[in-house]
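Saturday, quiet lab. Running sequence design on the structure tokens for the scaffold JK sent over.
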């Protein structure tokens, strides 16, 4: 009795790409300093505004007028993490259970993860200059670039998943589907 698709190298590649994309997005999201100006910094979970020696810490849910874009960016990046973790779970199930449904789900989950990661990152890139006191000071840190890499890895994982699904379907015997109950 057949149990589903046979494991091929593309399935392992999907798992590796998913692990890398999820790990990089996770590390970038939880890094505290996406933008920094002196002792002040802004991240996805926290921010600290310093005026001379006095620093005021705020969590991600407190918004100031005119910075709603930051909340939206944080929300999109959080959805990127959630979809990345869901993709990791389904990639593990894909390799262990070898079912067609997991390939299909992974294509959509990786696409959603990449979409949210890119949207959050591009919003942050487009509006980060409003974080500085003088509109020009401050600098972006490496997590912004890491998120772009994570998004690219999610897109690559979706494409490789699609190619693997096509390869499986081209070599799949219809009798195998009838035997699976």
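Result came back. Writing it out in full:
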């Amino acid at each position: 009795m057949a149990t589903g698709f046979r494991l091929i190298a593309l399935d392992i590649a999907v798992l590796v790409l998913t692990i890398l994309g999820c790990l990089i997005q996770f590390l970038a999201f939880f890094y505290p300093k996406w933008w920094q100006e002196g002792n002040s910094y802004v991240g996805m979970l926290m921010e600290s505004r310093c005026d001379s020696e006095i620093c005021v810490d705020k969590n991600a849910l407190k918004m100031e007028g005119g910075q709603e874009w930051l909340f939206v960016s944080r929300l999109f990046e959080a959805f990127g993490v959630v979809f990345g973790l869901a993709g990791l779970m389904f990639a593990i199930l894909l390799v262990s259970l070898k079912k067609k449904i997991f390939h299909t789900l992974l294509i959509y989950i990786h696409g959603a993860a990449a979409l949210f990661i890119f949207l959050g990152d591009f919003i942050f890139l487009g509006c980060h200059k409003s974080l500085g006191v003088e509109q020009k000071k401050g600098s972006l840190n490496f997590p912004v670039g890491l998120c772009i890499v994570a998004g690219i890895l999610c897109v690559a994982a979706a494409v490789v998943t699609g190619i693997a699904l096509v390869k499986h379907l081209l070599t799949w015997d219809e009798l195998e589907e009838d035997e699976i109950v």
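Notes for JK: The chain has five helices and five strands. The chain has one domain: 9-36+64-171. Ask whether to fix the surface positions before the next round.
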